[in-house]
Amino acid sequence: MSDTKRSLKFVMSHSEVAHGRIYGPATPHGMRDDFSRRVRNEKIASVFKRFLIARVAFDAIIEMFRSSEPMRFEPINIFVERTLFGLKEECHSLFRDPGRRVGDTLYAEDLFDVLIGSIFHETMKIKENCYILEQYGPTYRSMAAIAERRIQVPAYERLFFRACKRIIERASTAVYEDVRAAEQLFNDATEHLLSILPRFANNGLVTRMLVENEQLVEMVYGEDGLEMVLDKMYEGRLFNAHLHAASSYLEAGRFQEARECCERSLAAKPDNIGAARLMARLKQRGA
User: Which pLDDT score is estimated for 212?
Assistant: First the structure.
C-alpha cells in the first residue's frame, strides 16, 4: 500500500468526529457555567482534531493529483463537503465574533477562523474547476468536433464554442493556481495552530486530544511531532503537558490513561511533585 493510500485510509478511520461530548460524560456539578465551559472545551478539541484530519486528507489528495493528473472531482468534492464544511461551520460558531467592528485587532482565534474559511473557499474553487474540466470539457470537445465537420455553423454557435474554450482553458490553469493557494493557506493554518496552542494549555481536553492522536499529530508536524507540539504548547514544560492530561483523565475516571500520562510526566521530570502526588492518588484508588 502506498503512503498516500495509507494516509487516506488513516484519515477515513478518523473522519467521523463525534458530535457533542467526545471525551466521556461531563461533570457539571450542577453548575451551568461549568457545563458550558466543558462543552466549549470539547468543541475546541474537536475543531483542532478536525483540522489535523483535514490537513492530512488534503495532502493525500494533492499527492494523488500530482502523481496521476488530472485531479478528479469526486475526491475533492467529498473532502470539501464532508470534511471542510463541518470544520468551517464549527470554527465560525466557536471563534467568530459578529459584533466586532472592522479594523479591530485580530485575535488568535479570529485568525484561525479566517484561515479555515479561506481554505474552504479556495478548495471550493478547486472543486468547481474540476467539475468543469471533468463534466463539461469532454462534452465541449465532442460538440466542437461535430461543428467542425459541418459546412455551415451559425454565428451564435461559433460564439458559444469560443466561450466554452475560454472557460475550459481558464479552469485548467486555475486548478494549479488554486491548489498552490490552498497549500499555502494550509501551511499558514498549521503554523498558526502551533502558535496559539499555548492559549489552550489550561484545556485538558485539547491536551488529551493531542495525546490520543499521536499518529495524526506526527503526520502533520513530522516525526516526534507530539513531543514538539506539547513542548511548544506548554512553553518548554513538557512534564506539565503530561501532568495536565493525567489530571483530566483522572477527573473523567480513565485511570489507566491517567497512570500512563503520569509516568510520561515523571519520565520528563523525575522530581515532579505534582505527578508523584497524582500517582499516589491513583494507587489509593487501586489504579
Answer: 93
Are the C-beta atoms of residues 4 and 65 closer than 8 Å to each other?
no
Chain-centroid distance of CA 256 in Å reads: 28
Domain membership of residue 25 (yes or no) is yes
Measured in whole angstroms, the distance separating CA 173 from the mean position of its chain's CA atoms is 27
User: Which region holds residue 266: left if phi is over 0, alpha if psi is between -120 and 50, else beta?
Assistant: alpha
Closest CA to 97 of 118, 116, 114, 119: 114
Distance (Å, rounded) from C-alpha 67 to C-alpha 57?
16
Number of domains, the chain: 1
- Distance between start and end Cα atoms, the chain: 40
Scanning 15-107, the segments in alpha helix (DSSP H) are 32-67, 73-78, 85-95
Q: C-alpha cell of 167?
A: 472557460
Q: What share of the chain is helix, strand, coil (3-state, %, to 5)?
A: 80, 0, 20
Residue 118 lies in a domain: yes
- Decide if 174 is inside a domain: yes
- For the segment 78-104, what is each residue's pLDDT rounded down to a tens digit? 999 999 999 999 999 888 876 666 555
Please check whether residue 247 lies inside any domain of the structure: no
pLDDT of residue 14: 54
Cell 514538539 belongs to 228
| pLDDT confidence band for 287 (50 / 70 / 90) | low
Enclosing domain of residue 119 = 3-200
